[in-house]
């Protein structure tokens, strides 16, 4: 996809690895200055050091003061903030259980990052965007926010919340010049997915083959494929789409595969 982001500044959360890193790299290749934001400070520094114009910011997106400081540092460093990619997120990868046994502390951890953190980042980033006359926000949701799965109730609830929050944000921020969309990845070959579904000790390794039969394309996505979808939503020429959920799921939600 040919996209020119020259002169624009993109803030990517969870950018030390996985989808976030791939997105930061893809946007940098299109000319954007990148804020590589992650709770993993060393990882953020490593990624930023490989990009032509980037800074690393260590931030826990659950901390409102830290989030406000990160946005302020972005504007101080680059003079503007045009694009926010709300990518940071977590899930339960071990000891997945039904809701009646789901630990309250794990619920708070997941919802605190995946939904509350997204709210805090969006609230902070919207201010300089509004002052400048507009911007773009892309929220990374999940296919399970549309089609629920067992044993991950907090993640399912948080991602469903992200999808509907995106619509609300689009209604509220559209008149202020900010376009807001979300993307729903299906199965993606991140390191966590690799361990869970393909590793020797993976909790769901035995079910992987059957699971892939449900996906028409028969494989998980690469992080680069998800980054391409995010780039599409953030592209300047994509100027009349807001409140939209882009499914990048290999056909997972197209229908039931017999």
Keywords:
258 residues; alpha/beta; Rossmann fold; seven-stranded parallel β-sheet; 7 strands; globular
Structure description:
By secondary structure, the chain is of the alpha/beta class. The chain has one domain (9-186, 221-247): Rossmann fold (3-Layer(aba) Sandwich). The chain is 43% helix and 15% strand. It has eight helices and seven strands; from the N terminus they run βαβαβαβαβαβαααβ. It has helices spanning 18-29, 41-48, 64-78, 104-132, 153-173, 191-198, 208-213, 223-234; strands spanning 9-13, 33-38, 54-58, 83-86, 135-140, 178-185, 245-248. Strands 3-2-1-4-5-6-7 form a seven-stranded parallel beta sheet, sandwiched between helices. Strand 1 (9-13), helix 1 (18-29) and strand 2 (33-38) form a beta-alpha-beta unit. Helix 4 packs parallel to helix 5. The two termini are 34 Å apart. The mean pLDDT is 94.
């Amino acid at each position: 996809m040919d996209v020119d982001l020259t002169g624009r500044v993109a803030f990517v959360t969870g950018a030390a690895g996985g989808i976030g890193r791939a997105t930061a790299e893809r946007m940098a290749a299109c000319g954007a200055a990148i804020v590589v934001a992650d709770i993993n400070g060393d990882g953020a520094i490593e990624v930023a050091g490989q990009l032509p114009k980037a800074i690393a910011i260590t931030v826990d997106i659950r901390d409102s003061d830290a989030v406000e400081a990160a946005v302020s540092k972005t504007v101080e460093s680059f003079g503007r903030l045009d694009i926010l990619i709300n990518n940071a997120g977590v899930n339960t990868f071990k000891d997945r259980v039904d809701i009646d046994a789901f630990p309250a502390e794990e619920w708070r951890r997941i919802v605190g990052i995946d939904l509350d953190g997204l709210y805090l980042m969006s609230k902070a980033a919207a201010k300089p965007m509004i002052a400048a006359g507009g911007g773009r926000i892309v929220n990374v949701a999940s296919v399970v926010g549309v089609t629920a799965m067992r044993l991950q109730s907090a993640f399912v609830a948080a991602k469903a919340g992200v999808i509907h929050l995106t619509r609300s944000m689009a209604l509220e921020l559209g008149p202020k010049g900010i376009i807001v969309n979300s993307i729903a990845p299906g199965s993606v070959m991140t390191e966590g997915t690799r361990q869970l579904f393909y590793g020797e000790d993976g909790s769901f390794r035995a079910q992987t083959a059957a699971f892939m039969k449900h996906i028409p394309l028969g494989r998980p996505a690469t992080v680069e494929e998800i980054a391409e979808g995010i780039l599409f939503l953030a592209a300047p020429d994509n100027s009349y789409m807001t409140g939209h959920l882009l499914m990048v799921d290999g056909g997972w939600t197209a229908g039931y595969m017999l």
